[in-house]
Write a structure and sequence with these properties.
Layout: H1 5-16, H2 25-39, H3 44-51, H4 59-71, H5 79-92
Helix pairs in contact: 2-3, 2-4, 2-5, 3-4
Length: 93
Amino acid sequence: MQLCAGECICCLLITSTEGYLIQEEGDGFLLACAFANEFGEGGRDYFHVISQFYARYERNEADRKFNHALKGRYRRIGIGSFFMMISNHFING
């Protein structure tokens, strides 16, 4: 699988946060929408990688959220939301 530059940046940022981006349920859904809208089905793995560090992570529940994000009308939530969360993590974290 060949990754585009945006995907490589996302991978680096995800690993550098050590998974502390998701502090509550709403954060998880925001990230699901961001990855679903940017990468489609290909964003599911990124979502699982970052979600697994959430204290109440359950794979089936994460899949349900991601499916909802893929099918929903949340197109205004883009990858910029992910980068904003990253920025807030490093500035405020």
